[in-house]
Each structure stands twice: as C-alpha cells, then as structure tokens.
Amino acid sequence: MDKTLNRRDFIKTSTAAVGVTTVASGITLTTFAANKDPVTNTKRWGMLIDTNRLSEPEIDVMVSACKKEHGWGSEKHSVGDQKPSWIKKVKVKDRLTQKETSLPLMCQHCEQPPCVDVCPTNASMKREDGIVLVDRHLCIGCRYCMMACPYDARSFVHEDLTNQKAHMPRGKGTVESCTLCVHKVDDGEQPACVASVNSDAVIFGDLKDSNSKISKTLRKIQSTQIRADLNLNTGVRYSGI
Ligand code: SF4
Fold first, then answer.
1. pTM of structure
2. 69 φ, ψ to 5°?
3. Is residue 15's pLDDT more than 70?
4. Angle made by CA atoms 166, 81, 86, in degrees to the nearest 5
5. Distance between CA atoms of 153 and 147, rounded to whole angstroms?
6. What are the residue ranges spanned by the domains of the chain?
7. CA atoms of 171 and 71, how far apart (whole Å)
8. Among 79-88, 94-103, 226-235, which is the least confidently predicted range?
9. How many helices (H) and strands (E) are present in the chain, helices listed first?
10. How would you class 101 by CB atoms within 10 Å of its CB: exposed for 0-12, middle for 13-18, buried for 19 or more?
11. Please, which pLDDT band fits residue 37 given cuts at 50, 70 and 90?
12. What is 39-239's CATH number?
C-alpha cells in the first residue's frame, strides 16, 4: 500500500452511513458518513512561527491549548521522562552569536517524513495535504518512528487513558504527535495552538496558495526550517532564528 494513501480522504469520500471496507489484504476501515470535501494535494498546510514576536508566556499558552484540545499532559508516569508531548517549548542557540531563542517545537509535518519511511505497518502516514499522522489502529508501538524523527516530536503512550476526547482518541501502546488539529482544519478552523495566540506571531495556512497570508508573509520575511540541512521540506517554518 502506498504510504501516502490518504485514509481520511478515503473515509470522507465514502457515501456509506456506516460501513466496513477492505482497502488492502488484512486491513479494514470502519467508515462513518462524512460530507466534507476530499483531501487533495492542491493544498499544503503549514505554519509560520515568528520567534521575535512570540513571547515565552505565549509559547506556554500554545502548549496548554494543545493539551486541552487533545487531552494529553495529565497522565501519571512511571517511565522516567517519557511523557506524552505533542508540542513543547525549547531553546535554540545560535552558535555564532550565542543568541538564545525560545520556540514551540512540534511535528514539523515534513514533505519527506522519516517517520513514514521507517514505519513497518504504514501507521505513520502523510495526507495529501501534507499533514503527517499516526493511525493508532495500525501502530504496533515499535517506536521506530520516534527514533527516526529528527525533532523528537513523537511520544509513546505508556499508561491507561481516561477522559479521552471523542474527536482525538488516543491509545495505550501507540505513538502520537501533533496532528495540526486535523479535525479542526478539516472544519475550516485554525489549529488550537495557533488560535491561542492573539497576534500574527503564528500564522497557519496553505503554502500552495500564493495569496494566503502565510505565503505572502513568507515572501516578505526571512524564514528557515529547523534542520534545513536534512532537506525534509517541513510544513512548519520559523523566522527570527
Ligand atoms: S511506533 Fe507505530 S507509527 Fe511508529 S513506526 Fe512503529 S508502528 Fe509505525
């Protein structure tokens, strides 16, 4: 099966109210009615984070918004520091100037995602619109993707989960990471972390639309990708670092 197979797209374009469909040998999807547009590669979702304008408290607010939206962060841990972490505040240091900058770091939604390359079950996948996801039903918890991710953006669920969000079910024994709030994006909304910032310090939009705010801003300012040397063409871009 093509690793970029768009399962959500498949689900969305199904006309069945509820059904079970075989998509490949041994793999079935339970489908639910959805009236949304199919996901296509005419869009590529991205985020631009201006570290000069984003304050440390605002980064904390972004992390809190993600926790609240997806229900992670209150788990009890017995396994060292391996806590769920979909987005975190990190400091980066310019080797030349020694300037330190704080920024939010999450899945960078690479065009060439190493996590997808190494996943033995196709649980790691990239949608046509560039959003990188984990299908928890296919994830066997091998954690190869965690080792492959240069951004340390994935975490493993060690514990039983309670009070899960209906829109983003999680699974013990599986790997998870930022979904770019795909459930909101598909409804035409902004990701929760972006909406939590009351300024243009964080912009979300379609990188393929030359008239989108993110594309216009990217043309105006200098920006970079973290570990640009890896040529992963990340969907998340930063300025000010
Ligand atoms: S932990 Fe899950 S998503 Fe990651 S490589 Fe293994 S099967 Fe794939």
1. 0.84
2. -65, -40
3. no
4. 35
5. 10
6. 39-239
7. 12
8. 79-88
9. 7, 11
10. middle
11. confident
12. 3.30.70.20
Tens-place pLDDT, residues 199-227: 999 999 999 999 999 999 999 999 999 99
DSSP β-ladder status, 18-24 and 27-32 = antiparallel
Closest ligand 1 atom to Cα of 135: 3
Residue/partner pairs of 184-190 with CB below 8 Å, 24 or more apart? 185/45, 185/131, 186/8, 186/12, 186/36, 186/39, 187/36
Pocket test for ligand 1, best of 143, 156, 157 (most atoms within 8 A of CB): 143
Residue 132 pLDDT greater than 90, yes or no: yes
Q: Per the structure block, which two tokens stand in for 209?
A: 């639309």
Q: Which residues' Cβ are closer than 6 Å to ligand 1?
A: 118-121, 123-124, 134, 139-145, 175
Residue with tokens 């975190």: 88
